C-alpha cells in the first residue's frame, strides 16, 4: 500500500501538472456492489452525485493528509483519493481504447516507449479529462489492478473535522517533537511497536514498509511494546522515523510492487531496503551476521534482524 512518501510524491506531481486545470469529463468502469463501495465513485448510484460537484470545476490546489490525496476544487469541494493496495495516479495524454474488453488497456497513453506504457500502468479504471491545457485535452488516470482504491467528494470546510478527524499527527511536521512522539506511542503501551507505528490514529502515514525500515535502523525488535522502550530507544526510533520517511520522499517512493509516480515511473526507495522483503538474506548492519526473518504481527508481516534488533 502506498504510504506517506508515495502519497507525497504523487501530490508533488499533481501540484505541477493539474492545478489550474478544469475537469471537462469523468469516465469510470470501477463499479462494485460491495458494501464497502457505497458512497464512493465505485457505487453507480453515487457517481452522478460525484460528477455534480466535480465536473466543470477548476483544481485550485492539491495536498496530502496521512495516506489521503486531497484535490481541492474552486467550488469549495475536495476530491479525496486513497490509493489503497495497488492504486496510483498518472497524468498525460490518453485516448480511449474502443476495443477494450476488460483485459487490455482501457485508455492508451500517447507516444511510444514512455513510462506510462509500463505494464503496471495498464489497469486504468477512472479517468478525468481536462479542457484548458496548452496542448489540448489531457487526462488524469487512476490505475488500480485490484480496485481497492476509493475516490469521494466532500465539502472542503468540514473535511478535517469529519472524515479525517480520526487521524493522528503528521510525523514530518516540524512541530511534531520527540516528546510528542513518545506521548503518542504510549497511547497504546502494550501492543507491539510495529502495530502502533502503523496505527493511523496514533501517527499518520506510516505503513508496513517504512515501519520495518525505521525499526531496523533504531535496532528495535518489532514485537517490543512502547511501554518497554527506554528513553534512548525512543530517541533513536524518532530519528529513524524522520530519516526513513524523508529518504522515501527523496527517492520518489517505493516501487517494489505496483506504485508508480504521476509520470508512470518507478520510485527507487526499494533499493534502500535493509529488511523489508529480504527474508533469509544477511543483515546489512556493519559487523552483524544476522539473517533477516519474517514474522506475522497483528496480521501483517514484519521483517527484522533477530541479532541486532533487541
Q: Please, what is the CATH homologous superfamily of the largest domain?
A: MutM-like, N-terminal
What pattern of helices and strands is seen along the backbone?
Answer: HEHEEEEEEEEEHHHHEE
Q: Strand arrangement, largest sheet?
A: 1-8-9-5
How many domains comprise the coordinates? 2
Biggest sheet, open or closed, and with what strands and sense? 4 strands, antiparallel
**Rg from C-alpha positions?**
21 Å
CATH C-level class of the largest domain is Alpha Beta
The quaternary structure here is: single chain
Taking all residues together, what is the mean pLDDT?
96
CATH second-level architecture of the largest domain: Alpha-Beta Barrel
Annotation field: number of helices: 6
According to CATH, the fold-level topology of the largest domain is N-terminal domain of MutM-like DNA repair proteins
Q: Outline, from the CA principal axes?
A: globular
Number of strands: 12
Beta-strand proportion: 15-25%
Terminal Cα span? 27 Å
Work out the helicity level.
10-25%
Structure, described:
The structure is a single chain. The protein is of the alpha+beta class. It folds into two domains: 4-158, MutM-like, N-terminal (N-terminal domain of MutM-like DNA repair proteins, Alpha-Beta Barrel), CATH 3.20.190; 178-304, Orthogonal Bundle (Helicase, Ruva Protein, domain 3), CATH 1.10.8.50. 21% of the residues lie in helices and 22% in strands. It has six helices and twelve strands. The chain has helices at residues 4-17, 47-54, 178-185, 193-198, 208-217, 231-250, and strands at residues 23-28, 59-65, 68-73, 77-82, 87-92, 94-96, 107-109, 124-130, 138-144, 150-155, 293-297, 300-304.
